[in-house]
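Ticket 4471: requesting a sanity check on a complex prediction with D-xylitol-5-phosphate. Repro inputs:
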Amino acid sequence: MIVSPSVLSCDFGNIQRDTEMLDQSQADWLHIDVMDGVFVPNISFGFPVLEAIRKHTKKTLDVHIMIENPDDFLEQFQKSGTDILTVHYEACRHLHRTISRIKELGMKAGVALNPHTPVSVLEEVACDLDLVLIMSVNPGFGGQKFIASSVEKVRSLVDLRTKKKASFLIEVDGGVNLETGKQLAEAGAEALVAGSFVFNSASPQETISQLKSL
Ligand code: DX5
Ligand code: ZN
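Returned structure tokens:
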């Protein structure tokens, strides 16, 4: 299992310490949630914070942007150290163009789906994607309750990938813990994001190791 701890739940007063802790852990990627207060009802952080994180880890930066008009900022995300850039399907009018541009800039391209968005909307771009992110909560906040129907959605996405002979990775974000993570792993998820479950645990590094072994 690829594990991508969400920095959104870290202690921002100690972001260097927490980034270094993740860097020393078994985490594969670091998940970075950028929110603009328009696409989602919350504001998180932007480029200066992303650049600060980049300085303190060599791990893959898995950047999930919950913003309107993502096209205006693709280059700046690349310059700030993004490895995988995931845009929301619901925020892109010309999704194919956005995905192409992300790849032209040398990043891996991901698309996130809100809980109400069916996987079928990705049929025509399935072969162009490096990653699909299934949101298992409504985006905007850490610590929310897992939406149980997301497990079935992962199965539908596996079927779509087979049908289209595509090769994207399947990642799930929101309410992930050992119990929901196990269900998602069985359904075919290959990457799990976990924020509050990792950072609220007694030993974040140990929790990351447990998630890795799912
Ligand atoms: C929610 C974010 C998530 C969030 C997950 O909008 O996309 O990445 O950090 O937090 P938990 O794991 O606490 O649900
Ligand atoms: Zn996220």
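Notes from triage: Residues 2-212 form a domain with the TIM Barrel fold (CATH 3.20.20.70). Leaving this open until the requester confirms.
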